[in-house]
């Protein structure tokens, strides 16, 4: 299985438009972060988790020419607003499967009504095949994917475990029962927004506590704000099996 980090930044991305914060002005490529998304590939299949405003550029940058589906963690704009840009895949491949909780599907249908209409549909609009996911395992091609439920402030969000790879973002609370599902996983990805606490995201300290509970072989932090600090400086402070993810990072499991 190959994982490619397409984006590792928080909702505004890094740099933030117009910001003069030193991290936003950094010339280190690892400090440039598009909105969070990850590509998961195995046995010739390719799935994307989340499809935010940078989706088009992320597909170009990773030379991704085919997708088998898009999984959504939740409906916030930084995770969904690129859905229209599945068009090139739709034109080449046909209807594109999407996987989301029913609340997220409802939100997508409202915001991208022209994608979901069946009558008088504009010929250039893409069509999706909706797959409603609940908090129970589901099959993608030849593997079983396990949803991991957590809370993003009051909103329920799903993380996903693909074999020995668990990807969780926008978490603030995760129950012990859900943590049990990913204990001792090989690779864990978890959000760590910044140093200071935040109402809907783990800060660095909370992310490290979470990693201590899960006890993965290796953990990577994502959904990073400029307020976490410079990539290279922060990484030096982390435990030896914890790393900051960065855009373009590839991991093979
Ligand atoms: Zn987010």
Automatic annotation (TrEMBL):
Residue ranges annotated for the Metallo-beta-lactamase domain, each copy included: 34-223
InterPro entries named in the record:
Metallo-B-lactamas, RibonucZ/Hydroxyglut_hydro
What SMART domains does UniProt report for this protein, alphabetically? Lactamase_B
Name residues in a coiled coil: none
Return the Pfam families for the record.
Answer: Lactamase_B_2
Write down the superkingdom of origin: Bacteria
- What this protein is called in its record is Phosphoribosyl 1,2-cyclic phosphate phosphodiesterase
Q: What is the scientific name of the source organism?
A: Mariniflexile fucanivorans
């Amino acid at each position: 299985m190959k994982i490619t980090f397409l984006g590792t930044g928080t909702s505004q991305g890094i740099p933030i438009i117009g910001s003069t914060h030193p991290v936003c002005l950094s010339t280190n490529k690892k400090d440039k972060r598009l909105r969070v998304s990850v590509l998961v590939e195995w046995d010739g299949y390719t799935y994307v988790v989340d499809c935010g405003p940078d989706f088009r550029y992320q597909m170009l940058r990773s030379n991704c020419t085919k997708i088998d589906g898009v999984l959504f963690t939740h409906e916030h704009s930084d995770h969904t607003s690129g859905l229209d840009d599945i068009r090139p895949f739709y034109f080449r491949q046909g209807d594109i499967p999407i996987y989301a909780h029913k609340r997220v599907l409802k939100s997508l249908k409202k915001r991208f009504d022209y994608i979901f209409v069946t009558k008088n549909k504009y010929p250039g609009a893409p069509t999706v095949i909706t797959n409603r996911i609940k908090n129970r395992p589901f099959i993608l091609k030849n593997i079983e994917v396990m949803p991991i439920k957590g809370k993003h402030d009051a909103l329920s969000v799903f993380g996903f475990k693909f074999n020995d790879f668990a990807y969780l973002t926008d978490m603030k609370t995760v129950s012990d029962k859900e943590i049990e599902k990913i204990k001792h996983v090989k690779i864990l990805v978890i959000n760590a927004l910044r140093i200071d606490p935040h109402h809907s995201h783990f800060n660095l300290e909370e992310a490290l506590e979470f990693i201590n509970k899960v006890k993965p072989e290796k953990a990577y932090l994502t959904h990073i704000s400029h307020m976490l600090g410079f990539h290279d400086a922060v990484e030096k402070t982390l435990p030896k099996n914890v790393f900051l993810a960065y855009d373009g990072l590839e991991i093979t499991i």
